[in-house]
Design goal:
The chain is mainly α. It contains four helices and no strands. It has one domain.
Length: about 70
Amino acid sequence: MEPKLINKYVKLKSLTWWAAIVPVFVGVLLALGNVFQWELVVKIINEFAPGVPPAVMINSGLVAIGFRGAIK
């Protein structure tokens, strides 16, 4: 991949980038928590986002990152 393309989407100093990467990270944790039976992780995430599947969290974060990259 071209470094310019990566720099277009990854902005470590941007608050909007961090707000978009958090759902991706939480979705991956929830998916892994369901697979590996991490009850505490799943319980904590479900307290903050009840009933939201991991795929929705991951996709919403990726969409936000994509929109942010498209706007710039």
